[in-house]
Specification:
- The relative contact order is 0.17.
- The protein folds into two domains: 168 residues, 3-Layer(aba) Sandwich (Isopropylmalate Dehydrogenase), CATH 3.40.718; 124 residues, 3-Layer(aba) Sandwich (Isopropylmalate Dehydrogenase), CATH 3.40.718.
- By secondary structure, it is an alpha/beta fold.
- A twelve-stranded mixed β-sheet has the order 3-4-2-1-5-12-11-6-7-10-8-9, sandwiched between helices.
- 40% of the residues lie in helices and 18% in strands.
Length: 335
Amino acid sequence: MQKLRIAVTMGDPAGIGPEITAKLFLLPEIYKNASVTVIGDLTTMIDTQRRVSNKLSIRPVTSFNEKMTKGVINLFDMKLIKYGEVPLGVETKKGGKAQYHYVKKAIESALKGEVDAIVTAPINKHALHMAGIMYPGHTEILAKETGVKNFGMMLMCPQLKVMLVTTHTSLKSVSGLLTVKKVLEKIELAHTAMKDDFGIKAPRIAVLGLNPHSGEAGAFGDEEIKIITPAIKAAQKKGINAQGPYPPDTIFGKLIHKQSHDIAVCMYHDQGLIPLKLIGFESGVNVTLGLPIVRTSPDHGTAYDIAGTNIASVESMLTAFKTAVVIAQNRMKNR
């Protein structure tokens, strides 16, 4: 099979992104199926490489087709940061601007067909905003730059996959944001991803209720009756095996321990993320669905409190990398 070309953005230069990016190159798994290029800044990566391991070195490159050598980090240097400009563990305007441009370069390269997938190290939302870049996070940047309107955030670990209908919003606003159309769109995105990206021929989709006991026939809320059930029925009419709405307090045991379904469509952020992070905190992966490109990311933040200490776990980053490989390979098969 042809080797994939994967771009890894180093994330917020003040966080643990550069560290977990460098640590990837100490792992034999990344050399098997892909040619990997880091998009970031040489000044930051040299500092990081020295802290992480004396078995690593850096080779500046100008394309994504360079041959890989074990222990050598191929780096596409964006030249955005001078030495000492972005201190570790501190939100800065300079760091916010740089992390945005790493992602933008990766997206542009994927859209041009120069890379087959992108893996993004964590960014800091407040640093983005300090730089005047007013996105809530990676997902919205990706959607804007690829021109996609219908997109979604899927989080996964080896035992569980969850799709979120609403994401970064207050709990009190969730009910007002739910519509039949929106729930149906997320069910469809989940169905397509399971088939095309993960090779599941007949995906089983669990759709969760919003309220305790899924509303108890309207006793605790009517969103299940008015919104969620009609969306499930509409999906079923399209040939999608969507079932529910399931009470959120009971379905996760069946999903995790009995593999009752392939993915859960959750109504709000913490409904899906609490169980997922409980069982897979260090192996969680964020996958953006609905894009014309492949994008994965570790499911954790910039961890300013441990930046520069060399104790950050690379597990989630490695799982994100492996997931990007799987998705890219499956999409190539389906072309």
